[in-house]
Amino acid sequence: MILNFKRGALIAAIGISSLSLSGCGYNEFQQLDEQVGASWAEVLSQYQRRADLIPNIVNTVKGEANFEQETLTQVIEARSRATSIQVTPALANDPEALKKFQAAQGQVSSALSRLLVVSENYPNLKANQGFQDLRVQLEGTENRITVARNRYIKTVAAYNVHARSFPSNLTAKVMGYEVKPNFTVENEATIKVAPTVSFDKPASK
Which of 32, 42, 181, 193 has the most CB atoms around its CB within 10 Å? Predict the structure, then answer.
């Protein structure tokens, strides 16, 4: 009888603990943290996809006589800086590290856009089917990056709201769930609209 009583008390304690954890937002933290982690992994995957495309693009462009060396160098150096950043799970939780990561990836985007615009001045590249295929792949990858980044921004925002809201903020303090840094943009409209790579020839001066 005593054994049954102890067993019943244990079951009751477990039940009360489960309800307490649920009521204080612990379970939601677990779910939101998993979503943030999955979204971050997708962001990294798409940036890596772009990084893997760049050597093929550069090698194709190198075959074009007299192509602007400065433009090629900018792309190569931007990729080198971006890929030199050691990406660890802790990076996403470090505001300064995340800022540097985003800046490096932004430099890659700018350098690639410049290269593609300049390539319009070279008829042989415009007629090169391999180069055209790479441009299409790059445009698709840039759009995937934007989608993945937007999803990450939203999941981090949801996590941070939960971390700041009462009473789940009390659980955050006890369990060590700190507010996470997020991507930032100068123009909020760029978050909502996926950018496309422009292939239009610059207007002559």
Answer: 32
Whether residue 24 contacts residue 171, with contact meaning beta carbons closer than 8 Å, is answered with yes
How far is it, in rounded angstroms, from Cα 21 to Cα 77? 49
Task: With respect to residue 113, please indicate whether it lies within any of the assigned structural domains.
Answer: yes
Give the tens place of pLDDT for each residue, 89-124.
Answer: 789 999 999 999 999 999 999 999 999 999 999 999
- How far apart are the C-alpha atoms of 95 and 150, rounded to whole Å? 18
Q: Decide: pTM greater than 0.85.
A: no
Helices within 65-122 (DSSP H only): 69-84, 95-119
- Report the C-alpha gap between 58 and 60 in whole angstroms: 5
Asked whether 161 and 177 are in contact (CB, 8 A), the reply is: no
- Domain count within the chain: 1
Flag whether 187 is in a domain: yes
In angstroms, rounded to a whole number, what is the distance separating the alpha carbons of residues 70 and 152? 34
Preceding peptide of 195 cis, ω within 30°: no
Q: What is the pLDDT of residues 14-69, one digit of tens each?
A: 333 333 444 567 899 899 999 999 999 999 999 999 999 999 999 999 988 889 99
Residues 108 and 82: beta-carbon distance below 8 Å: yes
36 and 155 Cβ atoms separated by less than 8 Å: yes
Residue 12 included in any domain: no
Structural domain that includes position 157: 45-192
